[in-house]
Amino acid sequence: MNATIDLLNAHRSIRAFTDQPIETSDLHTLIQAGQAAATSSFIQACTVINVTDAEKRQALAQFAGNQAYVAAAPVFLVFCADMKRHQLACQMHDAPMQSGFTEQFITATTDCALFAQNVIVAAESLEMGGVYIGGLRNNIAAVSELLELPELVYPVFGMCLGYPDQNPEVKPRLPLPVVLKTDRYTDTDDQAHLAEYDEVIREYYKTRTGGQKDMSWTEQISGMLVKEARPHMLPFLKEKGYLLK
After folding, report:
1. 143 — phi, psi (to 5°)?
2. Which residues form the signal peptide (predicted)?
3. What is the DSSP string of 173-205?
């Protein structure tokens, strides 16, 4: 192994932060590291909003399900899939932009995910920590209005960043045979692997919560997937000019 792989394998979600601020120069370094991520066809379809206004932070915390660390973290970033600048690029060359394609939604959203992962890895290399905030999509229209996002721009997720004031254990991931296949898809042995993994996760939760949470991974996932998953997202994205064809 090497230091990069060790860093990646040590990732934890951090939700409690010290009062130490993140210097502006360090934040710029993190964003530039994000820009270095792979980008489909050089489309560069991610825009990051650094939310510093305290009232906006508090509103975003409420929109995300009353997650207090959204308001308290030294830095809170909102990663937006952004095809607006591409519309401008087309206008600069009198080229009518063909928009609304599902492929454009996939590439812009993937660009954001790759960009953000570079940011958090870079932050961890500087002894910072953070957590993704997908809860912004609970009230995505309100988030969009608060941040004045135009057509062709939508908030994919947020990210809290700061210097850790907690030291949680690394959460065990799925067994390698479940996620790595050879030549074709097969799930013949997946149930057996998941049963073993369930016991690992059950023990992890017991240790992490002092015995207050007793749940396996498959119990957690099955409980989540019997519920609707933000059905408001499709009409919102269509209003923003995505997923029209």
Report:
1. -60, -45
2. none
3. PPPHHHH--SSS---TTHHHHHHHHHHHHHHHH
- For residues 29, 31, 34, 39, the Cα torsion angle rounded to the nearest 10 degrees is -130
The answer to whether 203 and 171 have CB atoms below 8 angstroms apart is no
**What is the length of the chain?**
245
Q: What is the pLDDT of residue 33?
A: 98
Determine phi and psi for 122, rounding to 5 degrees: -60, -40
Backbone φ and ψ of 108, nearest 5°: -65, -40
Which of 160, 168, 156 is CA-nearest to residue 81? 156
Q: What percent of the chain has pLDDT over 70?
A: 100
Angle between helices 217-225 and 190-209 (to 10 degrees): 100
Q: H-helix or E-strand containing 130?
A: strand 129-133
- CA atoms of 129 and 16, how far apart (whole Å): 9
CATH, domain range 3-169+228-239: 3.40.109.10
**pLDDT single digits (tens) 151-188:** 999 999 999 999 999 999 999 999 999 999 999 999 99
Strand (E) or helix (H) holding 78: strand 75-82
Domain locations in the chain as residue ranges: 3-169+228-239, 176-214
Q: What is the pTM of this model?
A: 0.96
